[in-house]
Automatic annotation (TrEMBL):
Its EC number is 1.1.3.15. It is an enzyme of class 1 (oxidoreductase). It comes from Panicum hallii var. hallii. FMN binds at residues 78-80, 107, 128, 130, 156, 231, 253, 258, 286-290, 309-310. Pathway: Photosynthesis; photorespiration; glycine from 2-phosphoglycolate: step 2/3. Belongs to the FMN-dependent alpha-hydroxy acid dehydrogenase family. It comes from the Eukaryota. This is (S)-2-hydroxy-acid oxidase. It holds the Pfam family FMN_dh. GO terms for molecular function: (S)-2-hydroxy-acid oxidase activity; FMN binding.
Length: 369
């Protein structure tokens, strides 16, 4: 395999190892994949303003998320069907997150159930929720997550219908016959049928509730005491509604650029959301994070932490649990170095003054008149 020096190198290995249908499912975005590319490129347009001659011999990256202390502001995003990547699937990811003392978010569409993930041992875990048309299914699932010791619900709100993922349509994507959506196995909802296009798109059309609205955030609060993070917010207007409706936090996400193409990169939408939240709830960033420098940029723009998705799945495919552990370690080490070279010894030291965005550069352009 050679020495892996950054998390992006796992993707090429995953591409070689995985069947085309599985790799394309993890790697692809919606339609023209403009947002998929922009999720990365937008980070590259943010520059640093490092401070010098500051004692950085000791650096503290610890933080608290919803009252839980973790080792760094880098957490694992929900990604579906991880056993397509590696036989250990979500078990491996859960163990790696726990060993790194950070948070793993388990997908509703995991190939390991909430109980199975809990059985890997202690760890701080969130549960990502899709709302099914049958609300009894949702209630049952939320209660199971609670019983299994999960600490929060990440409610995905940007998927009333599945985005048009052309790679999945071409491949006639369907979950391999040896795997099921484990959380739904006993409910006859764990299998995915072959379809004329994407089997997942057909499954979503049949099961996911398109009527989902803010009143359902309130409804969720009546069936669980767990804090609810609203995942999929990219505007100030929806941020204010999330605050009004009692969300415990916001995850700025465009679903890994897999839903509506030509929405902004999450890092580009972040500051608008942070300003609208006015410190009333924590705002997290999900999407495009591949470097410790990206983590620093997100925190400088007001994020309380970041969630990482695809790098985890690609590393899982390449090297199982050791790969996931290495992704977390590399991002942590790069982030620590970025803090040191920017003159920051703890997360509170990271400020908006440490970066220059495109809009900042436009504002300081000398007049041409």
């Amino acid at each position: 395999m050679g020495e892996i020096t950054n998390v992006m190198e796992y993707q090429a290995i995953a591409k070689q190892k995985l069947p085309k249908m599985a790799y394309d499912y993890y790697a692809s975005g919606a339609e023209d994949e403009w947002t998929l590319q922009e999720n990365r490129e937008a980070f590259s347009r943010i520059l640093f303003r490092p401070r010098i001659l500051i004692d950085v011999s000791k650096i503290d990256m610890t933080t608290t998320v919803l009252g839980f202390k973790i080792s760094m502001p880098i957490m694992i995003a929900p990604t579906a069907m991880q056993k397509m990547a590696h036989p250990d699937g979500e078990y491996a990811t859960a163990r790696a997150a726990s060993a790194a003392n950070t948070i793993m978010t388990l997908s509703s569409w995991a190939t390991s159930s909430v109980e199975e993930v809990a059985s890997t041992g202690p760890g701080i875990r969130f549960f990502q929720l899709y709302v099914y048309k049958d609300r009894k299914v949702v209630e049952q699932l939320v209660r199971r997550a609670e019983r299994a010791g999960f600490k929060a619900i990440a409610l995905t709100v940007d998927t009333p219908r599945l985005g048009r993922r052309e790679a999945d349509i071409k491949n006639r994507f369907v979950l391999p016959p040896n795997l099921t959506l484990k959380n739904f196995e006993g409910l006859d909802l764990g299998k995915m049928d072959q379809a004329a296009d994407s089997g997942l798109a057909s499954y979503v059309a049949g099961q996911i509730d398109r009527t989902l609205s803010w009143k359902d955030v309130k409804w969720l609060q009546t069936i669980t005491t767990l804090p609810i993070l609203v995942k999929g917010v990219i505007t100030a207007e929806d941020t204010r509604l999330a605050v009004e409706n009692g969300a415990a936090g916001i995850i700025v996400s465009n679903h890994g650029a897999r839903q509506l193409d030509y929405v902004p990169a999450t890092i580009s939408a972040l500051e608008e959301v942070v300003k609208a939240a006015r410190g009333q709830l924590p705002v997290f960033l999900d999407g495009g994070v591949r470097r410790g420098t990206d983590v620093f940029k997100a925190l400088a723009l007001g994020a309380a932490g970041v969630f990482v998705g695809r790098p985890v799945v690609f590393a899982l495919a390449a090297a199982g649990e050791a790969g996931v552990s290495n992704v977390l370690k590399m991002l942590r080490d790069e982030f620590e170095l970025t803090m040191a070279l920017s003159g920051c010894t703890c997360l509170a030291d990271i400020t908006r003054n440490h970066i220059i965005t495109e809009s900042d550069r436009l504002l300081v352009m000398p007049s041409r008149l």
